[in-house]
Amino acid sequence: MTLRSRDFSDAPVVLEISDLVVRVSDRDLPPVLKGVSFDIRRGETVCLVGESGSGKSVTSLATMGLLPRNALHVEGGRIALNGQNLLDVSSAQMKQRRATDLAMIFQEPMTALNPVLKVGPQITEVLDLHTKLGRAEKKAKVLDIMRQVHLPDVERIYDSFPHQLSGGQRQRIMIAMALILEPALLIADEPTTALDVTTQQQILSLIAEMQQRHGTAVLFITHDMGVVAEIADRVCVMRQGEIVETGPIRQVLETPRHDYASKLLDAVPSLVPRPSRQAPPATPVLAAQNLGKTYRSGSFLGKKTEVRASHGVTFDLSPGRTLGIVGESGSGKTTVARSIMRLIEPTDGRILLDGDDIAHLTSSQMKPKRRKLQVVFQDPYRSLNPRWTIARSLTEGPLNYGVPYDTAIAEAKRLLKIISLPEDALRRYPHQFSGGQRQRIAIARAVMLKPEVLVADEAVSALDVSVQAQVLDLLDELQRQTGIAIIFITHDLRVAAQICDEVLVMQRGAVVEQGSAERVLHDPQHEYTRALIGAAPGRFWDFAARKPLVA
To answer: Which of 147, 337, 368, 462 has the largest CB neighbor count within 10 A?
Structure first.
């Protein structure tokens, strides 16, 4: 696969944003958007990229007329859709134009869909508001668009609630809802961020297919440069409310002109595994032997059901090594992690920590073992108590194990230097830090107890690419300094390639392939592993070297 090179110079302009300025209402602060300008032509995909806080989503919300009242307001500029300035139309007119002329897909479909309404009627609501079709015609049109987005068994899904569908199916419902009236402009705000690589590839292909079918102009907002390489015709790079670089996809990826664009590209992890580290002979600190978890349900007289969330998982992990567990949602990755941490009790197998089987210890028996096992979760916003200072969060664990306060606070100050935060951060609260800083604090908290094993469960999946690179470097530095063993759970094979020594691939609760990261990612033997690698966005491009990985 290669970068797109389509010419849209003769296509009509669908969206033209000129000198757009957005400010925070009632505050003497710098503008959130500082004269943003770009356009999109019919059938073209323009990717708006940048880190959190760069202004990407504010640009999309301003275009949709959805800026939060009394919080943000447009101070100047122009947003023209097919020649008409949307800033001049009334709220009622703007409401009418949504779905008919422009539509938006949000990042998290579970929050965008009404959880108490079936998805079919939710799509039908768009037709209720904007058409005069009869009831039978509306249902036929809804079922047709559901087929177009390749949903299976559309009659059943029509009568399903959002929680009864997978993440990919919910996102397809959002796409169907957005495109049912064939708008001229589709805005997609991080629509694939939370999805597995194979589902992500399906959604990207679906958007491209629907775009080709309907001639839709697409504004795609993302921080994932791999996705950009897959779908973009042109790229606009945003930083602190300004577009610092814009150009065709090939020009931006091969010869970026702005330092910020270059830094974003340099931070993108490569699918090429890092050089193999020689494993010194060592007794495994952690071993799983035929580890499994089966959930059983059913009444005394009723039919009993069993779900094997994981089974037959076996591996050894030595000090200073990183084991990656990869696979799609539902593959059993997190079940294995929670079993190892004894957050759930496994039903089969053994977990050997320093030679002791901890698989079936009671809570009181596990307490002295827990300081050897620590975990970093995916969401840094929920990992820290918002009412506690950083000092209290970092020292809680050591204090619970009898470490004197002065010793604990001294260790907290030492770790703050390692994670590149000032000492006064100890007096501050979680909301005063960015997402990347919070994740670094969560890692420091886990390391405070000097554990032998650190479990990182999707610890970088919610982070910007540059922050992700910082966290991966931090984990690598901590491992070199302390010899800690790491279990790294991810669905991003590019991340696994950069941090893991061994990789274990899971599908439907079972291990289908395992071995060195170099062997598994360079020469995969199982069809499922090959499918995961084939679906990784931007797999054909070396972002740091600014060239294709294959000719």
So the answer is: 337
Distance CA 377, CA 391 (A): 19
Task: Decide yes or no: CATH 3.40.50.300 for domain 1-101+184-267.
Answer: yes
CATH number, domain 272-372+452-535:
3.40.50.300
161-171 tens-digit pLDDT? 998 887 788 88
Phi, psi of 89 (to 5 degrees): -90, 155
Which residues have CB under 8 Å from 38's CB, separation 6+? 17, 46, 48, 236, 243, 246
Mind listing the pLDDT tens digit for each residue in 313-369? 999 999 999 999 999 887 889 899 999 999 999 999 999 999 999 999 998 999 889
Of 419, 417, 418, 399, nearest to 407 by C-alpha is 399
Q: Which of 11, 5, 4 is nearest to 216 (CA)?
A: 11
Tokens 């059938």 label which residue? 43
Q: How many CA atoms lie within 13 A of 450 on its CB side?
A: 8
What is the total residue count of the chain? 551
In angstroms, how far apart are the furthest CA atoms of the chain? Answer: 74
Phi, psi (degrees; rounded to nearest 5) at 320:
75, 5
